[in-house]
Amino acid sequence: MRPQVDRKSSGGGSQRLAVGVARRLEQEIKDRGWPIGEVLGSETALRERLGISRSILREAVRLLENSQAAQMRQGPGGGLVVSVPDPRSSIRGLVISLEYLGATVDQLVYARSLFERMAIDRIIDTLTERGVQELRRSAAGDGGPSIDFHVTVGELSGNPLLELFIDVLSRLTAAYTQRAYAITDDRSGELEHAARLHSELADAIIAGDKYLAHQKMLKHLEDTTTWLRMYVAPLPGERTATRPMDPDPGERPREKKLAEHVAGWIHDDIVEEGRQIGEVVGSEAYFVEKYGVSRSVFREAIRILEYYRVAQMRRGPGGGLVVLAPDPLATVETIALYLDYRGVTIENIRAVRDELELGVLTCVMRSGPVAADALRADDRRSSLHLRDRIADLSGDPVLGLFRSVLALVWKDCGGPDSSDVCGPGDGPSGDRDELDALVDAVVSGDAELASFRLRAHLHAHQEL
């Protein structure tokens, strides 16, 4: 599965160098097995070892601190300390990217149905007494908003990828719901209905009834879709100019550094004021006065926004903070780092890969007839190439972005490469025959046969 993002760093030379240094230190942490609390070196020692300036090292450290892979500890015995990575900023970044790409309510809910069905099956097969208690607690709303129930379902699946994807989609749903609440006062009935379905779904899972659990889950998502469609844009094919809402409504991180607070506030202001891509929203002096912070804190906040491609500072006459089109590159890389810490396995990836590719195929089959030349344009065909073409035809930004995450995590896990093509005279003839048969089923509109052939092909080939 080919990544849909370019791994080349953007920005100026110093920024690119800082990103490269951060990636090198991240790799060192991964190679050493995430030794939490261990000091990688003092600032002086790291500068000498890496052969870089103080400013480049400090910028690289800021990037590591943003993902919380490492923190710079001051004082005697201090230095760059390995820490537990925090996925929240990256989850927020994925939500921003999906909204900017124009993810519709239907696409969002369809992806949720794929991943939550997988999670339910896994939970039923592995549920413990503690899991029963957690399900009932979250279904009852004891842990907070209803988003917690779906996050709990992801956590109990035991698959870090499922947990992450469900968390992202639940937060995007919550953000869309907040937008709907801004339009309608019909809150209590919807909340009570969702709470009742959560309770019924939890009971079905605890009872081990997969069929009933699937039905309850689908009912819940169908009701969510129907309600959100009445209030939430974008419509299919539309793209928002910038993110029109906050994926963590009303949430202000309390424990993070001041610069991260400021970065979040600037981003929220861009959203709330309806700023457009390319628009200059203010100068450094304007923001320093507005938020009552020092220039150094503001500049560190800008580095965070620039890293996630939310906004960029333009120098010179007419300059200021410019709104950018969100780029998922940094977010996807940070997510991959977090998943490495969580110990994601090749088996975890394959399980999600199979359902994701089948979900993409279903999108294509539902969209109508597929022209033969759309899949047969290249006489030399590989499994990867064909699945990429099917993904392109689906036009689904949610599944497309998650394919990118899987591809990068697979590469980081050392999974086998699937770049070999199956041309007329290359590779086992059976491989080429399998792909030709899959194309035949897709072009003929036989959804059931196409799904069968893709599933059989995926099971026969272990590469991504």
Structural commentary:
The chain is mainly alpha-helical. The protein has 3 domains: 1-85, Orthogonal Bundle (Arc Repressor Mutant, subunit A); 102-229, Four Helix Bundle (Hemerythrin (Met), subunit A), CATH 1.20.120.530; 345-460. It is 63% helix and 4% strand. The strands form 2 sheets. A 3-stranded antiparallel β-sheet has the order 1-3-2. β2 (70-73) and β3 form a beta hairpin. α3 (54-67) crosses α13, α4 packs across α8 and α5 (105-126) packs across α15 (346-366). The longest helix is centred in the first third of the chain and has 22 residues, at 105-126. It is globular, with a radius of gyration of 23 Å. Mean pLDDT is 82; it is low at 1-11, 234-256 and 419-429.
CATH architecture designation of the largest domain:
Up-down Bundle
In what range is the share of β-strand residues?
under 5%
What low-confidence regions span 5 or more consecutive residues with pLDDT below 50?
A: 1-11, 234-256, 419-429
Q: Provide the gyration radius in Å.
A: 23 Å
Measure the end-to-end span.
5 Å
Structural class comes to: mainly alpha
* Integer count of domains: 3
How many DSSP E strands?
5
